[in-house]
Specification:
The protein is built from three helices and 14 strands. The protein is mainly beta and 208 residues long. It has two domains: 138 residues, Immunoglobulin-like, CATH 2.60.40; 60 residues, Type 1 dockerin domain (Orthogonal Bundle). The strands form three sheets. Strands 2, 4, 9, 10, 12, 13 and 14 form a seven-stranded mixed beta sheet that branches. Strands 1, 3, 5, 8 and 11 form a five-stranded antiparallel beta sheet that branches. A two-stranded antiparallel sheet has the order 6-7. Strand 9 and strand 10 form a beta hairpin. Helix 1 runs antiparallel to helix 3. The longest helix is centred in the last third of the chain and has 13 residues. The chain starts with 10 loop residues before the first strand and ends with a helix. Bound molecules: calcium ion (2 copies).
């Protein structure tokens, strides 16, 4: 009997995260891939109370620095309420790397969001440089309500520790790698997250 060893693991998913009512935060969509993918399509199913931020009528989805060849990202609200997200490029260079954030979503929770809720990801099709299409598993993630916003809690785990300093520095160097609470991270409240906020956070940890 022929034994097949299946080692390929291709997943596209959102990790579980917490969000405060009224908060806008960045959430990464993670791609783990054995194949050299160059384009994809997926349907994002958001629960009541969570919405993707829009700018000029466009939903704010951004490709991370895994976008090595000018891939474009587009999205559209479908009749069934799903947000269809598509990314492709004219050249045939694949997304770089084999794991980590591929897309960053800007998500807002309504003021009356109470959690917990589920975000679904389905109809995920990825295409390789050779034009082979892969159907990736249906995924879901759990969204919990953060009781209150915590100044300095960049990773949103409910406590302010040295881990938030590392998280903040990683964010500044590499962009969003998982769920990033920009309001929490903006310690000096000037509306942007910069190295100045890292200094403020370290000062705060030293004093408290
Ligand atoms: Ca934290
Ligand atoms: Ca700031």
């Amino acid at each position: 009997m022929l034994a097949l060893s299946v080692t390929a693991t291709n997943r596209f998913y959102l990790p579980d995260f917490v969000i405060a009512a009224g908060e806008t935060m960045q959430v990464a969509m993670i791609l783990e891939n054995d194949e050299p993918f160059t384009a994809f399509q997926t349907d994002l199913m958001l629960p009541q109370g969570l919405t993707v931020v829009q700018d000029d009528g466009e939903y704010l989805f951004d490709l991370t620095n895994r976008n090595a060849s000018d891939q474009t990202i587009l999205s559209k609200l479908r009749y069934d309420g799903a947000l269809r997200v598509e990314s492709f490029c004219m050249s045939v260079k694949p997304y770089s790397g084999s794991s980590g954030a591929l897309v960053v979503i800007n998500l807002t929770a309504d003021e009356d969001f109470t959690g917990p809720a589920t975000i679904g990801l389905k109809n995920s099709f990825f295409t390789t440089v050779d034009g082979i299409e892969f159907v990736l598993p249906v995924e879901s993630c759990q969204v919990q309500l953060l009781a209150q916003q915590l100044r300095g809690d960049a990773n949103g785990d409910g406590v302010v520790t040295i881990a938030d300093v590392s998280f903040l520095i990683d964010y500044l160097l590499a962009g969003c790698q998982s769920s990033f609470h920009s309001q929490n991270a903006d310690l000096n409240a000037d509306g942007v997250v910069t190295i100045a906020d890292v200094s403020s956070l370290i000062d705060w940890l030293l004093e408290n």
